[in-house]
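Backbone-to-sequence.
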């Protein structure tokens, strides 16, 4: 990736965020500060508010109260198109238009930069070209997205998000439908994106993967943040038990020492005896 591709460096700050649906609070009093160029992994059980939090930060779900600041800009105090210059979101299960090519998909990332007085430009073309190159999808530019493998498709979607050239990138479960090899490929790409100065916030169900690839871990339960910190200092048996009602051993991975979660049993559920031979 080139430095030109990163745009303005900007951190993310969330203050006292409350969000939900009529009669059903989902995110309650969430505060979060992320310096520019870091990878943040949000973990927690299903239904704890992770995706709603991302949508509120992306200006897609209006919070009941609270503030979202990117580089000092209040996202909810600016227009939708202008906000899309600051933050981009890749949702859980994106759907491409029928028969669209990879290059066509990535060009959609430049939509916020288009308007009546600004049409497609050399700058847009360069942004698309650099995004394809950064994600290793240049050779796929002419291929139809619906004919690619899951791993290839996910890299193409990431290219579209990168082409938007926002300082903050939000990824909602970017590895959920991928095999182990492609999941690692995507997570390594996430690290490369952050290395250019962008801030990446991703929802991640795999706690061990989140701990290995993130600079900061944010654990949520019941709509609230219950733990925040450096992964190897934050992931322990007590946190796993609180989040998932699971007893587990926490081991240090060879090499980098990142925490590896080895489940034992659900909390309060007796382990089943091993059948006699």
């Amino acid at each position: 990736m080139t430095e030109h591709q990163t745009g303005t460096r900007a951190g993310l700050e969330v203050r006292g965020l409350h969000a939900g649906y009529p009669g059903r609070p989902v995110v309650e009093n969430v505060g979060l500060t992320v310096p520019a160029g870091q990878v943040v992994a949000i973990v927690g059980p299903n239904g704890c508010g992770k995706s709603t939090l991302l949508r509120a930060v992306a200006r897609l779900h209006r919070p009941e109260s609270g503030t979202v600041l990117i580089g000092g800009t209040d996202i909810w105090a600016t227009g939708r198109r202008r906000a899309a210059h600051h933050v981009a979101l890749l949702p859980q299960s994106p759907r491409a238009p029928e028969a669209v090519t990879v290059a066509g998909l990535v060009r959609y990332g430049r939509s916020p930069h288009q308007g009546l007085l600004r049409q497609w430009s050399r700058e847009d073309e360069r942004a698309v070209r650099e995004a394809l190159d950064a994600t290793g999808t240049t050779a796929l530019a002419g291929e139809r997205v619906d004919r690619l493998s899951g791993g290839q498709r996910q890299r193409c979607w990431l290219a579209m998000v990168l082409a938007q050239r926002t300082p903050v990138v939000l990824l909602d479960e970017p590895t959920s439908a991928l095999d182990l090899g492609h999941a690692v490929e995507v997570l390594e790409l996430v690290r490369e994106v952050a290395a250019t100065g962008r801030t990446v916030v991703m929802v991640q169900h795999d706690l061990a993967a989140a701990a290995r690839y993130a600079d900061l871990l944010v654990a949520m339960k019941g709509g609230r943040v219950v733990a925040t910190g450096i992964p190897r200092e934050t992931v322990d048996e007590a946190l796993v038990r609180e989040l998932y009602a699971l007893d587990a051993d926490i081991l240090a991975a060879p090499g980098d020492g990142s925490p590896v979660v080895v489940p034992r049993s659900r909390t309060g559920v007796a382990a089943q005896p091993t059948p006699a031979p």
